[in-house]
Amino acid sequence: MTNLDPHPTPVECVGGTGEEGVEIQIIAPRDVPLGGPRAMNVRRTLPARARSLIGAWCFLDHYGPDDVVVSGGMEVPPHPHTGLATVSWLFTGEIEHRDSVGTVAMVRPGEVNLMTSGRGISHSENSTADTTVLHGAQLWVALPDEFRDAEPAFQNHRPTPIEQDGATVRVFLGSLLGATSPVRTHSEILGAEILLEPGARLEIPVDDRFEHGVLVDTGVVEMTGVGAAGPASATVAKDSLAYAPPGAETLVLQADDAWTRVLLLGGPPFGESIIMWWNFVGRTHEEVVAYREEWQDQITRGGAVVDDSQEVADGRFGVVEGNHQRPIPAPALPNARLRSRS
């Protein structure tokens, strides 16, 4: 998924140090339209003013359930990325993914698609004709400095559900409850979907080096982190994201009287600062400006637009074969140097 804000704000995402307090922090979502006459709205919780990263997780959009007849579904033409990996997770619907390393894949419920942009990639995402309801999450993972110029790549995995204590857990990245995802990542990271029966209580042993986030998709959950400093609890409402700092050895999730579904995210404090602007992750103003110029050069050198398609010249971001949508041009840069903001 792309950031379709016509005036994207540069954001410095500052990795934690692991020395934050034990109190659980609640991050409320903000509504962001993805553009177009029937804009599909997403609920964005990362980055936020209160917190910009959880481990290496740097971006979280949560959308649906949307009736595609009303919203128009997802129509995201080719667009670029650098310095990050995209993680797609669906609850309902189906999306066709195409990218410039030659991947043509479907995003389906219960399967994770991880696309590593590395030094540069472009891709498109479009909901399929058979999709009537679209519901899911799109996340980004910042790549550590030593890997951010890696070769672009794509991976797909369907985790085996774990049934435990009135819960169904799907571990799509990292390790949890004895399950380990085979998806390769460039930093230690955790990603799992947890479905809780009404009133269910689940105790989860976790790595106390990690900071954790719990995004509530449906229902309401009481989240408790238990560690050497004692327990800390918070009630997390639908669509909100709860943050627990490092130090918890156990996370306890208590569902209310309805079915509750959450995404559990985690990782060690990132320890690096990054600048995100539009679809680019870099370290300096000059890097981001150069990425934008290279993308604009690729789509400009490609030639004239014919119908709704446009040829795209090859370059850093490659070419998305088989997609005939007009590539998304980069927004104008702000009339000032891209400044970091924590």
Care to give the gist of this entry?
The chain has 342 residues and is mostly beta strands.
Explain this structure:
The protein is mainly β. The chain has a single domain, classed as Jelly Rolls (Sandwich), CATH 2.60.120. 6% of the residues lie in helices and 47% in strands. It contains 2 helices and 29 strands. The strands form 7 sheets. Strands 2-23-20-25-18-15-14 form a 7-stranded antiparallel sheet, with no helix packed on it. It has a 7-stranded antiparallel sheet with strand order 3-4-5-12-7-10-13. Strand 26 (273-277) and strand 27 form a beta hairpin. The protein starts with 10 loop residues before the first strand and ends in a 32-residue tail after the last strand. Mean pLDDT is 90; it is low at 16-21 and 303-308. Keywords: Iron, Metal-binding. Belongs to the pirin family. Its cofactor is Fe cation.
Radius of gyration: 20 Å
N-to-C terminal Cα separation, in Å? 23 Å
What amount of the residues lies in strands? over 45%
Question: Segments where pLDDT lies below 50 for 5+ residues?
Answer: 16-21, 303-308
CATH superfamily: Jelly Rolls
Named CATH architecture: Sandwich
- Structural class, by secondary structure, is mainly beta
Number of helical regions: 2
Strand neighbour order, sheet with most strands: 2-23-20-25-18-15-14
**What composes the largest sheet?**
7 strands, antiparallel
Overall geometry comes to: globular
Domain Pirin N-terminal: 41-141
Cofactor: Fe cation
GO molecular function, one term: metal ion binding
Family: Belongs to the pirin family.
